[in-house]
Design brief:
Elements: H1 7-16, H2 19-32, E1 36-52, E2 59-74, E3 77-84, H3 88-102, H4 108-134
Antiparallel strand pairs: 1-2, 2-3
Helix pairs in contact: 1-3, 1-4, 2-3, 3-4
């Protein structure tokens, strides 16, 4: 990641970041400038999750996922989030952190650092899991 993350990248990483870390960072952002307007209070709902089957490449609905959505306006920009689960405070905090980055606030570097550490942790966990599973991969020989 670089310091020029897109809105989608920031939102995605903040939505997957540790709730405690996001909440702590949002408190620090608000300590610098507490002027925030909640344009959509945190709302818990569901979204339909669609996946693609890898062999036939057919899409199907896997099920509904519980999410919390929130929107804020701060420093002249809109922040939006949709986090999995029903943690309203974490969703609101993620939206606040998004506005901090998008407005290039004084803690935007900390938002980037949190996003980078979140992505690194996820990629490391995924690589570790694939390494663990690779021993069970069965490869077939083709007979001419």
């Amino acid at each position: 990641m670089t310091d020029s993350l897109t809105r989608a990248e920031i939102t995605s990483e903040l939505n997957m970041a540790d709730a405690t870390a996001v909440i702590a960072l949002s408190h620090a952002c608000l300590a610098d400038d507490a002027d925030v307007v909640i344009t959509r209070s945190p709302v818990v709902g569901t979204v339909v999750t669609q996946v693609r089957e890898p062999v036939a490449e057919e899409r199907f609905i896997l099920g509904d996922v519980l999410v919390t959505q929130a929107e804020v306006r701060r420093r002249g920009v809109d922040g939006w989030t949709m986090r999995m689960g029903a943690d309203r405070l974490a969703a609101l905090a993620a939206a606040i952190c998004a506005t901090e980055y998008l407005a290039d606030g004084p803690r935007s570097g900390e938002v980037v650092a949190l996003c980078e550490s979140t992505r690194t942790a996820r990629e490391t966990a995924r690589a570790t899991e694939w390494k663990r599973l690779s021993a069970s991969i069965v490869e077939f020989e083709e007979i001419p």
